Amino acid sequence: MKNIKYTKWVYFIFLIVFMGNFVFRETVQSFDFLARRSRSKQLNTLGMATALKEDGEFMDPVEILDFAIINGLDGVLQVYIDEQAVNRTGALASKSEEAGVFLICHSFLGTRRNMTEDDLRAELMAAQEILCNQDRKLVVFHYEPSWSREELLSFLKVFEEAGITPCIENPLISESAAPQFLEDIVFLINEDIDFNLVVDFGKIFSSEIGNDNLTYEDRVGMLNSLMSIIDKNNIPFIAHIMDSTYPDFSIREYYCPAGEGRMPYKDVILPLIVGVQRLMQCIVFEYEDANKVALSVENWHKILSVSDLH
Q1: Cα 198–116–168 angle (5° rounding)?
Q2: Do residues 55 and 81 make contact, with C-beta atoms less than 8 angstroms apart?
Q3: Alpha-carbon gap, residue 48 to 36, rounded angstroms
Q4: Domain count of the chain?
């Protein structure tokens, strides 16, 4: 009964989007680096995150930047604002400018409990140093379903004060989190808040403990609703891509290169991405293992090569 109720709710949102009851955005904002690239190449604008580990420890972000450049992932690098990055702001800024790599920062807002507005301000100060050579400054953070709208708006105000565009990443999808997230995004649109979105496909299709009431069709329906909101309101977005052979994506030992696990990239995700390709800024492969990143890139190109959609 719960699944039926949820599915109807998702498709109700989907219907509203197509009826055009939202305040549509008039312009599409794009990253500086995309201005130099053809729109038809966006499915090949690939990047990675500073999440690589060596001997169980996170690598220096500048070394990861070098890895990205050498391996052709020089479209964009997503930099986590951790202690290593804070200590290497100057090197990240100068080397990325020299190599022509567009940087995006990733806050720990939404992942660290009890993070305050002052904590966020400190992070954004570091982000400003890392992104100092870019006109457009973007910082990703995780949407937290436990926030009230007042709390969400307060955090977004901190971004505005810093002159940084927030990129809101969808939460792990559950029966309650999915409708709340979509409602809050619509609320922000109607409030004329400046933001981008980050579509983390793994969080939509992961069946973690306590999150197994949703069917596959429920998850596809939620993704359809989210992509429709993006489409109708011209919201730029970043695609986060990973894969796993196990339903619970929180167990990292089952992570595998994109296209080799449970994620429906070819049949579901790629057609949806192509439908809003004009708004997609880049694809970021999120892995801690360098080999999985390299194989994911190879697999992604294979998926595109056999598809009529690219």
Answers
A1: 10
A2: no
A3: 19
A4: 1
